[in-house]
Design goal:
It is built from 14 helices and no strands. With 292 residues, it is mainly alpha-helical.
């Protein structure tokens, strides 16, 4: 019971911190690709130090058995960060985050083909409800500016890449969450490095003093510390508990965007947020109830 309580607190803390990613990204005056690269490098370094201090042994055989999927999913994670950070620049943090949480919708729709899972009526209704909420959030009916719609497209693109990474993870064999995360972060960094070198003039980039701390926080806290806490908590929490607690992230992000960034929260956005998050939570509950 005590271990479950500690795991729950670790999970809640991680999700609350994840919900602040957009706020910290807004404080860094660097291209999204550079921020993503630095985040991956610092996160990988932190996990290596973390595993050394805890004397955690890496399962090399499990990594070799899943190496291709680990690398490909890591690449998806790296470029998913770029698209998400771009979404933060073009639209509100709330809208970008809610677009990002369409990833479960894409996973549900692809599961019959990729995972050979049956698409039930209840899951299909949840998908349509979430998509209807997304229409309200994005202002697809003509309520948003062209810049905001570009931000929505970046957010949906990020969700697509993240869903792809999740589906690849589901196809992997037995491997610990820590080993999986370590290799994926390293793969993301390795893939982003040549991309940044080819697309950015690093010599002309400048990072203000006020941007150094947020960048370090993104790498150490959001990626290193919280990824470690997240995967440590998974072993002591049920799948249902961890799935539901993960929705603290977008809810907190929406609240912070309104309170700290003074971003407008229209009734369409509020109703859309309830639809997107509510439908996905209901879908998770229905899935877990059917599991043995």
């Amino acid at each position: 019971m005590k271990s479950q309580r500690s795991a729950r607190l670790c999970m809640i803390f991680s999700m609350l911190v994840f919900g602040t990613v957009g706020i910290f990204v807004r404080q860094v005056s660097l291209p999204s690709s550079v921020i993503a690269l630095v985040r991956g490098v610092i996160g990988t370094a932190f996990l290596l130090v973390f595993s050394t201090l805890r004397k955690t042994k890496v399962d090399r055989s499990a990594i070799r058995a899943n190496l291709l999927l680990l690398i490909l999913s890591g690449v998806c994670i790296g470029f998913n960060w770029i698209l998400l950070f771009e979404a933060y620049r073009y639209t509100t943090v709330a809208t970008a985050t809610l677009c990002y949480y369409l990833a479960p919708v894409f996973i549900i729709l692809c599961s019959p083909l990729v995972l050979k899972e049956r698409l039930t009526l209840s899951r299909l209704l949840c998908v349509f409800g979430a998509l209807a909420g997304m229409v309200l959030v994005s202002g697809a009916a003509g309520l948003s500016s062209s810049r905001e719609l570009i931000g929505v497209m970046f957010g949906v693109g990020a969700a697509t890449l993240y869903a792809t990474a999740v589906l690849m993870n589901k196809k992997m064999g037995e491997i610990s969450g820590f080993d999986r995360t370590l290799v994926q972060l390293a793969s993301a960094s390795a893939a982003l490095l040549p991309y940044v070198l080819l697309t950015e003039k690093l010599g002309s980039l400048t990072l203000t003093k006020t941007g150094i701390i947020p960048l370090l926080v993104l790498g150490v806290l959001h990626t290193g510390v919280c990824y470690a806490l997240y995967f440590l908590s998974l072993k002591d929490l049920s799948a249902q508990s961890s799935s539901i607690l993960s929705y603290i992230d977008p809810v907190f992000a929406v609240i912070l965007s309104a309170v700290l960034l003074k971003e407008p929260m229209t009734w369409q956005t509020a109703v859309g947020a309830v639809l997107v998050l509510g439908c996905m939570i209901i879908s998770e509950l229905n899935i877990r109830k059917k599991l043995p």
